[in-house]
Amino acid sequence: MSHRFRTSIWQIMRQDTTPGPRNHFLPVYEAISQPSPISSSPVGPHRSNQSFLHMEALSDVLTYVYSLCVGDAPIQITIISQNYYTFSIMLKAGLSIDPRQLEFSVFVFPPRSSLPVGCLHHLRVWLKSAGIDHRIFGDNDLWIGRDPDFRSIADASFAILRNATQDMLIYQAVVGRAHVSFIVRWRLVEVGIYALSLDYEAGGVGRILFDEYYLKLDCEPQTVTFMIYSIPAVSMPHGASHRLRFWLRTPHASLSPTSSTSSQMTESYIYQRLWKTDDFKIGAYLNFTGLGSKLTMGVRDPNSPQSERDQPRRNLSIRRLSRLPIPNSDTAAEPIHDR
């Protein structure tokens, strides 16, 4: 199954299930003009000679909803079928079957272990048609749970929310002895759909970690918060490499009146991991001389930095020459990495 196909399934799971105009996230299935030669083949207990390309289009959107309990957190997975030419599973031409007759098997199962415990799950979605099962989607990296024990993660350093505005949250953390600000921003794409971004700043320098992460929210973004933490990784120099984790935190709304009354005394939250990196490089007062005797450290020119107007005229030609491609070298030296 292609990556594009798998991505489209996730996109459909994020869409609003209310019938309406076709969403630009949904892939369009272009119907061909000639029916497939297999259109007259039987597809179930009853034979049908009618190609699905010639069937009458459905006037509404069909929504299949499956309820699961994952990591003690109730979730719903939605599969949407709109007409026969925008059906997300992209049926082959010649398949003459009413989409109302389709069945899906949606289930999760845990791997051997995870940290936090009980938060990692493998997700599978299978389609059943005429007694035949087809796996249409799988994800081995679904992280979700209710009130997980993040404190069980050894050496984790947690960011603290310091400031919040209408469209931005600022978290403060210490990563590799460096004081780091993580800035979460969102913008409204359409009703219920937001684009999320995360960047960091430390010592007046920063960069974007991710951008344009589309998220569907059934609430205002001001009601959600995030869990951001880092875990030191083995690196040289020490304290230069970290694993960074970014979780979404939303209040848990119980469907049971009795449990909702008791939960007023104890707040409960649903956590979903949205993003991670195992290669976050930052640190304060790093000892680069510890890389070994083969290290050659550069020495800054005592006259630098200089602005362009302060540099001699001869340097202009040097800069122009530096734009030329660097010729290939026949000598290969052993690289030194910061690991």
List the helices and strands and how they pair.
Elements: H1 3-13, E1 61-70, E2 73-82, E3 103-109, E4 120-129, E5 132-146, E6 157-158, E7 160-164, E8 168-175, E9 178-190, E10 193-202, E11 205-216, E12 225-232, E13 241-251, H2 257-263, E14 269-281, H3 314-322
Antiparallel strand pairs: 1-2, 3-4, 4-5, 5-14, 6-12, 7-8, 8-9, 9-10, 10-11, 12-13, 13-14
Keywords:
7-stranded antiparallel sheet; 3 helices; elongated; disordered C terminus; 40% strand; 8% helix; mainly beta; 14 strands; 339 residues
Question: What report would you give on this structure?
Answer:
β10 and β11 (205-216) form a beta hairpin. The chain is 8% helix and 40% strand. The longest helix has 11 residues, at 3-13. The chain has helices spanning 3-13, 257-263, 314-322; strands at 61-70, 73-82, 103-109, 120-129, 132-146, 157-158, 160-164, 168-175, 178-190, 193-202, 205-216, 225-232, 241-251, 269-281. A seven-stranded antiparallel sheet has the order 3-4-5-14-13-12-6, with no helix packed on it. A five-stranded antiparallel sheet has the order 7-8-9-10-11, with no helix packed on it. It has three helices and 14 strands. It is elongated, with a radius of gyration of 27 Å. It is mainly beta.
